[in-house]
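Quick one - inputs below.
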Amino acid sequence: MANLYIALVHWPVYNREGETVATSVTPLDLHDLGRIALTYEAAGYYVTVPYESQRRLVEEIIYHWREGVGGEHSPQRQRALAAANVVGTVEEAFDAVAGREGTEPFVVGTTARQLAGAIPAERLGDEAGERPVLLLFGTGYGLTEDILLAADATLQPITGRGDFNHLPVRAAIAIYLDRILGDGKE
Amino acid sequence: MANLYIALVHWPVYNREGETVATSVTPLDLHDLGRIALTYEAAGYYVTVPYESQRRLVEEIIYHWREGVGGEHSPQRQRALAAANVVGTVEEAFDAVAGREGTEPFVVGTTARQLAGAIPAERLGDEAGERPVLLLFGTGYGLTEDILLAADATLQPITGRGDFNHLPVRAAIAIYLDRILGDGKE
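Output:
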């Protein structure tokens, strides 16, 4: 598979009532996502944050661990945040990947909902072909229909075994990356 | 596979220097672990906490969401914590599972280190046979050698694709459960 990029989306996503909202950044997500991305050698990850004040907060966290005193204290965290980038919107993440790769990425949505035409994670490499992949994950209660409809493909949900349907986004990212790229898959 | 139980172990685990320590509880882990366990229909999960004061904290968190006002506010969290139990040691978790199942569980260690004889997660069902499984996860820098040697089996590590070797325990639990029980596996 070509290079894979991840975007952790804080807007537009649903809240519990199904309204489209912006969620707050969970600092722990930045570290977890960094470690997961590094484990599976994702080429980079983007945190999409619509509010300027929250973007600054995320930038400060990243700076602290990547270039400030945090990194001296914990080289593991420094490495984990090396591929982190803050952007305002999904479009900016798309443009950043396109600029870096010299070609537009194949955009892939994820959702806990059953959608017609969704593809198994294991088949993503075939679907994307030679194009880099930008994999979108929604915080809160998930990516909006608009985002999913605008994507080139959507992955089938992680259903597990029961009817419970609300994995933490950190866990969903880990499981999807393992299904797509796990332990030496090409 | 028979019933699977999870233990999130806070002692004995290694710290960064390889010393055996007790780690502090991360409240977020309780929620994440609950959601992951429920998604894959684990029969129960144990949080092993050696210090009385921390055990009380965990019990209060569980009570708040399971039976207090938190549960009224968020039925999802209430469900996610329904299978949570606090114990002092791995032995207590073992005894609790044995008491509940009427037979001793097959104890399985996990580690990021490469150990001779470790089995692939996908083969755990065959190894355990009819016995219930108690799957141990270490916080901090992982379960000690003593715990791993005393277990009936150890799972092969999640290696991903690169040399980075420090997944958050939340992510490791999600990936292992998906490999063992994912999407309708029996």
